[in-house]
Amino acid sequence: MATSTTNAILKRIRAKHRGSVFTPREFAHLGTRAAVDQALSRLQRSGQIRHLAQGVYEFPKMHPQIGVLSPSAEAVAKAMAERTGSRMTVSGAKAANLLGLSNQVPMQNVFWTEGPSRTIRIGNQTVALKHVAPSKMIGAGTEAGIVIQAVRSLGRKGVPEIPVQALAKRLPRPVKRAVKRLARAAPAWSQPVLNEISA
To answer: Which residues of the chain have pLDDT under 50?
Structure first.
């Protein structure tokens, strides 16, 4: 039974791309929690997966000269959130930077979640999940959500500085439709500019 669980989990892991980050929760349908934990421990000892933190593993990506590469901060944060059945989204500052609305690059890898806060360190990299109110999780995990987070992070005073037309031209039509739909749940002061972006 233990071997079959291990083989089933290994098959699922190998179907992923290298650099993928996952938790035991993902394999719950393949065996009991104890069997899944034992299988992951076995795969870790054999070097096929890497243990990053409590309940967080990686299918490591290798570089011929450098060796094992660090996973992306976003992949780690997503797995950390999924471990508790929570959603994750980039912080407002990161969203603004991604869309070119701010030149400030966040110094830390901070992501928002409605789940518990948690910080883990992987080599020289620190990844933090910060608990926020559900109202800040609008469109979590979507491109439309990033737009809403970015506008919100700039605040009322920053709205006039947003290059609305340029941003609207860059966004694919499905994303603009999603922004328009989600704008109703955003703060009232941000709705006019979000509607303009999504027009």
So the answer is: 1
Fold of 2-69: Arc Repressor Mutant, subunit A (1.10.10)
**Chain segment 99-118, per-residue pLDDT in tens:** 888 877 777 789 999 999 99
Mean of the per-residue pLDDT values of the chain: 89
Q: Which amino acid is at 109?
A: N
Q: What are residue 94's DSSP bridge partners? A: none
Alpha-carbon dihedral of residues 143, 79, 24, 54, nearest 10 degrees?
-170
Distance between CA 88 and CA 113 in Å, rounded? 5
Parse the chain into domains and list their residue ranges: 2-69, 73-197
Taking a C-beta distance cutoff of 8 angstroms, is the pair 38, 30 a contact? no
- Which residues are CB-contacts of 68 (< 8 A; sequence separation ≥ 6)? 50, 60, 61, 62
> Cβ contacts of residue 118 below 8 Å, gap of 6+?
80, 128, 129
Alpha-carbon distance values, 85 to 57, 78, 95, 151 (Å):
16, 10, 23, 27
Are 115 and 129 a contacting pair, CB within 8 Å? yes
Say whether 29 sits in a helix, a strand or coil.
helix
Residues in the chain: 199
User: How high is the pLDDT of residue 55?
Assistant: 87
